[in-house]
């Protein structure tokens, strides 16, 4: 049996983001999906996650979950056995990204939270998948479960994050970086930067895939993560 696996969701995401991976990787060891809805800073999220986590665990995070993974590694690198970073970035927001984030927060504050997810879907998903009603419905249902108050907390946490590029070289955990080739939010260049900065990291690119790769191409992500958990990648 391998180490316990801890999965960190992204913005407006919950356990459904990792459903396929959690179900199919559980035979290798315990799998937990963290609840990242209660705190408004990455520091508070990291403290809560570490308090509940096993002594040593493998860690995977998508998007905001990746930002949190970097924070966890700064605080407790000795507790992370293996690391998988999915569709994320080591950089802080650009001014344009921060402005878009604040605009969505304003919508939520004005009671227009249901208007948030339709605006984000073209950024979350590959253009060819926007007509997939099962997939888009699952993404929007996930966002509704997270809700407007948690959405605001998560956005404040993301806006307050530090640039993690300077700490990449210190990451000693064997690392796999996964990205959808057409990811519009955290593009291939961001994944290449992470993989190039972490010693020995491996980069895997999933074709015809956007930002939410674990839901868009679940089988491909699960196969890669199985190899990673078994020590074949990297």
In brief, what are we looking at here?
With 234 residues, the protein is of the alpha/beta class.
Structure notes:
The protein has helices at 19-25, 42-52, 64-75, 95-109, 116-124, 133-159, 188-197, 213-216, 218-229; strands spanning 5-8, 31-33, 57-62, 80-86, 175-180, 202-206. 43% of the residues are buried. By secondary structure, the protein is α/β, with parallel strands linked by helices. It is 46% helix and 13% strand. It has 9 helices and 6 strands; from the N terminus they run βαβαβαβαααβαβαα. The protein has a single domain, classed as Rossmann fold (3-Layer(aba) Sandwich). The longest helix is centred in the middle third of the chain and has 27 residues, at 133-159. The protein has a 6-stranded parallel beta sheet, sandwiched between helices.
Provide keyphrases for this structure.
single chain, 234 residues, alpha/beta, Rossmann fold, 6-stranded parallel beta sheet, 9 helices, 13% strand, globular
Set down the secondary structure blueprint.
Layout: E1 5-8, H1 19-25, E2 31-33, H2 42-52, E3 57-62, H3 64-75, E4 80-86, H4 95-109, H5 116-124, H6 133-159, E5 175-180, H7 188-197, E6 202-206, H8 213-216, H9 218-229
Parallel strand pairs: 1-2, 1-3, 3-4, 4-5, 5-6
* Structural class based on helices, strands and sheet pairing: alpha/beta
Largest beta sheet: what is the strand line-up? 2-1-3-4-5-6
Largest sheet: 6 strands, parallel
CATH class, anyone? Alpha Beta
Q: Structurally, how many domains make up the residues? A: 1
Distance between termini? 19 Å
Question: How do the SSEs run, as a string of H and E?
Answer: EHEHEHEHHHEHEHH
CATH fold-level label: Rossmann fold
Strand proportion: 5-15%
Low-confidence residue ranges: none
What Rg, in angstroms, do the CA atoms define?
A: 16 Å
Helix content: 40-55%
**Number of DSSP helical runs:** 9
**What's the β-strand tally?**
6
């Amino acid at each position: 049996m391998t180490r316990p696996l801890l999965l960190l969701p992204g913005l407006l995401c919950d356990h459904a983001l990792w459903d396929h991976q959690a179900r199919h990787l559980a035979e290798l060891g315990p799998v937990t999906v963290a609840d990242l809805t209660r705190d408004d800073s990455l520091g508070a999220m990291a403290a809560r996650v570490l308090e509940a986590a096993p002594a040593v665990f493998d860690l995977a995070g998508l998007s905001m979950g990746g930002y949190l993974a970097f924070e966890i590694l700064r605080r407790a690198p000795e507790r992370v056995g293996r690391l998988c970073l999915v569709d994320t970035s080591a950089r802080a927001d650009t001014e344009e990204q921060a402005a878009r984030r604040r605009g969505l927060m304003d919508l939520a504050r004005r009671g227009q939270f249901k208007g948030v997810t339709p605006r984000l879907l073209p950024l979350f998903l590959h253009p060819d998948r926007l007509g997939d009603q099962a997939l888009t419905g699952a993404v929007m249902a996930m966002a509704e479960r997270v809700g407007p108050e948690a959405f605001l907390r998560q956005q404040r946490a993301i806006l307050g994050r530090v640039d993690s590029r300077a700490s990449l070289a210190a990451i000693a955990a064997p690392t796999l970086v996964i990205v959808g080739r057409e990811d519009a939010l955290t593009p291939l260049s961001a994944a290449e930067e992470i993989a190039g900065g972490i010693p020995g990291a491996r980069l895997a690119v999933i074709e015809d895939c956007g930002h939410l790769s674990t839901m868009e191409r679940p089988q491909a992500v699960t196969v890669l993560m199985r190899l990673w958990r078994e020590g074949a990648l990297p």
